[in-house]
Structure formats: C-alpha cells, structure tokens
Write a structure and sequence with these properties.
Blueprint: H1 2-18, E1 25-37, H2 38-44, E2 46-49, E3 57-63, E4 66-71, E5 75-80, E6 88-95, E7 101-104, E8 107-112, E9 115-120, E10 128-133, E11 154-155, E12 165-178, H3 179-186, H4 189-197, E13 211-212, E14 218-221, E15 224-228, E16 232-237, E17 245-246, E18 250-251, E19 256-262, E20 265-270, E21 273-278, E22 286-292, E23 300-303, E24 306-311, E25 323-328, E26 336-342, E27 349-352, E28 355-359, E29 365-372, E30 375-382, E31 387-392, E32 396-401, E33 404-411, E34 414-422
Parallel strand pairs: 1-11
Antiparallel strand pairs: 1-12, 2-6, 3-4, 3-13, 4-5, 5-6, 7-8, 8-9, 9-10, 14-15, 15-16, 16-17, 16-18, 19-20, 20-21, 21-22, 23-24, 24-25, 25-26, 27-28, 28-29, 29-30, 31-32, 32-33, 33-34
InterPro entries: LVIVD
C-alpha cells in the first residue's frame, strides 16, 4: 500500500513539473529589453564634465594639441597634449552610445545611438553641443546589436517603437515554457544571427582636420564625412560644418568595421574581407573590388602599392588564425595576397615612412622595417603592455593600451618611450 501511494505521488509530481496539456514544460531563462523614451534618454546622455577615470578605453583621435580617447559607449576624454612628456586630462564629454569621432574646423562629429552629434570645440574649455541629427547613421533598432546580450534561453523583444524607444538593458526571469518551443528556437539560429548582425593617415593631417587610428569608423576627406556602420558607408556633405547634409548611403556588406583612404580610394575593413571603393565622385563611392579572407576582426591601412591588414581571430572576431596580411594593390581590381605573418592577437596598426607599427594585443607594440615590402623585419617589440591602436604623427607616435596612453618619439630608425599617462 505504501509503495502504491509513493508511486502515485511520483506520477503526480512528475506531471506537475514537466508536463502540461500540450506537452512537456520546463523552466527557462527569458530575456526582455528594458526601454526608455528616446527623447528624454538622449537629453540625459550628453554632458560636459570634469575629468573622470576611464572605464573601457576605445579608439584614439588627435586634433591640434589635443587627444580624444573614446570611453566605449560612454563618451570621450579630452587630453591636453601641448607637452607630450606630461599630458593633462581636461574634460570628459559624456555621450552615451558613442564609439568614434572626427573633427574639422573646430567642429567635432560623433555618433550616439545612431545619431550624428556635433560639438563646437573652438574653446576647448567651454565645449558646447551644436547639433544632433537623429538616426543620421542608423536607426535605433541597430542599437540592439550594441548591447551585450544576457545569457538566456528565450529573447522576447515585444513592441519596440524605434522612433521613440531606446533599449537600455535587459530583464531576465525564469519562466515555464514548452520544451517544443525551446527546441524550435534552435531551428532558427540563422534568424538570431541575422538580427544580431544587423585623412590619408600616412602623412601629416591638414591643420583644420584631425587624425584617427586604423580602427576608425569615421573619416573626413575634404568636405565629406564618411561613417561606416555595420553594413553601409554613410556620407555627409560637411562643407557647412554647422549644418551637414545627409547624402545617400552605400551598402557594402554585413560585416564592415573600419575605414581608411589613400587619396580618392577608400579601403573598408570587414570581418569577411577588405572592400575597395573609388570616391572620385565623393558623393557616390563606386565599388572597385574586394579581397576576401576568413572571419576575423580586420582593420586595414595602405601605403603605396601595399595594403596591410591585421586579422584577429578567436572569440567574437571569428575562427581565422591571427596574423598580418600584406596585400599587393598595384592593380586595384585584383588585390593579391603576398605574405602572411603570424601574430598573437593584433588590433590596430600604423605607418610612418618605412616603419610599420602593429598593436599585437597582449604581445605588446611591434615595430617593423617595411622598406623591402612585402617583406618586413621586426626591429623592436615593446612587451609587458597591452597595445590597442596607434596614430603615427610627424614627430611622435601615440598609442592607446588598456586605460593607458603611451607616447613615443622617433629616434633614427627606432622609437623610444616618451611618456605614459594613466587614464
């Protein structure tokens, strides 16, 4: 009798835990976006404040005697570099949803949740907001792909009105769901993927235009600002820096990451390849060719007849083995891979005359002689630092690492550390 009662209880409990009328159910983690009104959110997302410690150092940009360092997704720090041996932090421009900037004629152009935001920096100690063009770069729905997704079994986006809503986070709860629904979820991994995928720098910059590194998504060339998002080249006529004109964008691929130019040729770096465009007509870039490679993070710089591409594999970047690709571009319609140099985990890179600088992540800053390109020779390696991106200037080299700004001075065919600045 006791055995039968125990068996009956077991059946009842098992049914309660794992079965409903339409099949078995289990507990799953369900994530829903947390929304905030876009107008009020963006009003709160911009401010000019006193210097503050950096949270996550991103891209680097220089203009006149100042250095601007992106604090990923938070804004950018303004550094007075009139004395490179002793730089001074003077302000933090809070700009949420920001990843990159570019400057011309004392007007600083930046992204914020897909908007193009313009600041007046003519008085560096009194920076003011000049303009904000909503959704000029991309619509707010792309902002979903910028937020770190939480670990969950289901993602429910609900009713998001992209013209007025901003996704500011996620709420994750445990809920009972059908096992069949959970299994169907894995049948549509491609759907999730599709949703989530949504200045030649080699010379001295013009006095009115700043200079970014190889990881830049913003590029000012003459009277035009080019901004790459995840798939397109966004083009702005900035002949009137107060009131930029939005021109037609150009679709490239679903994987683009960086932009670089040599004269009137654009080189777009993407996780699947390098894409080459002609901008003789600056308002309408025309496709020339592409160089495809395995999936990896991919900044590119160009000098003469060669393009130098660092591929970083592993993690988010993909499974391609890390390395430096040297590509012959003497025939722009048919770029040809010449040699691959193994790297540890390369990020940005830069060129000064015959010297090639590569930020190889935890392996430090590597300095190469490229005078015999495509063959290169290692001449120095600064170790015990994390190297992210560089900007080679006329008389010095700027490098951003893990919350540290490094400056080096050129000495003959090598460089020497000039200063370090904790951010």
């Amino acid at each position: 009798m006791r055995k039968n009662v125990f068996l009956l209880l077991t059946i009842i409990v098992s049914t309660f835990i794992s079965c409903d009328d339409d099949g078995p159910y289990e507990d799953y983690l369900v994530a829903r976006p947390i929304l905030q009104d876009a107008i009020s959110f963006k009003a709160e997302a911009v401010d000019i404040v006193d210097p503050t410690p950096i949270v996550s150092s991103g891209k680097i940009y220089t203009y006149q005697n100042y250095i601007f360092i992106n604090d990923v997704n938070l804004g950018f720090h303004v550094i007075n570099n009139q004395n490179p041996s002793s730089p001074e932090s003077i302000a933090f421009i809070k700009l949420e949803g920001n990843y990159d900037i570019s400057i011309k004629d004392d007007k600083l152009f930046a992204d914020s949740y897909g908007d193009l935001v313009i600041f007046d920096i003519s008085d560096i100690h009194n920076i003011t907001l000049s303009n904000r063009i909503v959704n000029a770069i991309y619509n707010n729905d792309v902002w979903l792909s910028n937020i770190e997704y939480p670990q969950a079994d289901f993602y429910e986006y609900g009713d998001i009105y992209y013209d007025k809503d901003i996704v500011v986070g996620w709420e994750v709860k445990t809920e009972r769901r059908s096992v069949a629904d959970y299994e169907k979820r894995f049948d549509c991994m491609a759907c999730d993927f599709a949703f989530n995928s949504l200045e030649s720098d080699s010379g001295s910059p013009q006095p009115s235009t700043g200079q970014g590194g190889s990881l830049a998504r913003f590029k000012i060339i003459g009277d035009y600002l080019y901004v790459v998002d995840y798939s397109d080249i966004n083009i702005f006529d900035i002949s009137n820096v107060e009131e930029p004109k939005i021109l037609d964008d150009v679709q490239v691929a679903w994987d683009i990451e960086t932009i670089y130019n040599q004269g009137d040729i654009l080189f777009i770096g993407g996780s699947q390849g390098m894409y080459i465009y002609d901008i003789k007509n600056p308002e309408k870039p025309e496709f020339i060719s592409e160089f495809r490679h395995g999936t990896a993070c991919d900044p590119v710089i160009v000098d003469g007849s060669y393009a130098y591409v660092t591929l970083k594999g592993g993690g988010f970047c993909g499974n391609t083995e890390s390395g430096l690709y040297v590509i012959d571009i003497s025939n722009l319609k048919n770029p040809e891979l010449k040699v691959i140099y193994p790297m540890n985990g390369p990020n940005g890179l830069g060129i000064k005359d015959d010297t090639l600088f590569i930020c190889d992540g935890e392996a430090g800053l590597k300095v190469y002689d490229k005078s015999d390109a495509p063959n290169i020779t290692l001449i120095n390696n600064f170790v015990d630092i994390i190297a992210y991106d560089v900007i080679p200037l006329a008389s010095s080299l700027l490098m951003i690492g893990d919350r540290v700004l490094y400056q080096y001075e050129y000495i003959d065919n090598d460089i020497r550390l000039l200063s370090t600045f904790e951010l």
